[in-house]
Design a protein that fits this description.
2 domains, 6-stranded antiparallel sheet, 38% strand
């Protein structure tokens, strides 16, 4: 009986740890959506079914390919670089309200600190680069947008015809979460907080 009691207590402890982990993931995402700095990005089409979550649209943004000139420390990195490295990209709103990259840095935020109207978004390089590379591809974890079933293909075809925008919340650590998807001024979808 004593061994059985320990087994039940161990199973309960494992369940509590697993539930706590899931709650922390959800709470972290909700915290960014609730209090993160909002930025607007121009959406570029780049497919569309995930067996577990349904239809999705694969997206690229106006900040997905960065000119190497935005990286002042690139020369210090040597002639070649590995994909998967952390990148911080400084974004600033243009006159049209769309945020554009103005600086980038590997591993740490660009200097000096972000001014009013600027935000540093964290991403990761997608591929190797060399001294002849002109653009660095960056992923931010917001490249998939899930939509109601059956609407993924229609949205992808519309992306090629007109401009769409995505509102994204950026946390203090630079992590990004999709907030809402817009066709001009019309909001098509909003992500729920939880």
């Amino acid at each position: 009986m004593n061994g059985r009691r320990w087994l039940i207590l161990a199973a309960a402890a494992v369940a509590v740890v697993q539930i706590g982990f899931l709650v922390s993931m959800i709470a972290g995402r909700a915290a960014v959506l609730r209090s993160g700095q909002e930025v607007v990005l121009q959406v570029e089409p780049v497919d569309p079914r995930d067996l577990l979550r349904g239809d999705y649209v694969t997206l690229a943004y106006n900040i997905s390919r960065l000119p190497v000139g935005l990286f002042p420390d690139r020369q210090e990195e040597g002639a070649q670089g590995e994909g998967g490295r952390t990148v911080f990209v400084r974004l600033k709103a243009g006159e049209d309200g769309v945020f554009r990259p103005v600086a980038a840095r590997f591993g740490q935020r660009p200097e000096p600190a972000a001014a009013e109207g600027e935000v540093d978004m964290r991403g990761a390089t997608r591929s190797r680069w060399s001294a002849s590379t002109q653009f660095v591809s960056v992923r931010y974890g917001i490249e998939r947008f899930y939509v109601p079933e059956g609407e993924g293909r229609e949205i992808e075809s519309d992306l090629r015809e007109r401009a769409f925008r995505m509102k994204v919340a950026v946390g203090r650590d630079g992590a990004a979460q999709i907030k809402s998807f817009h066709d001009g001024e019309t909001m098509l979808y909003a992500e729920p907080l939880y």
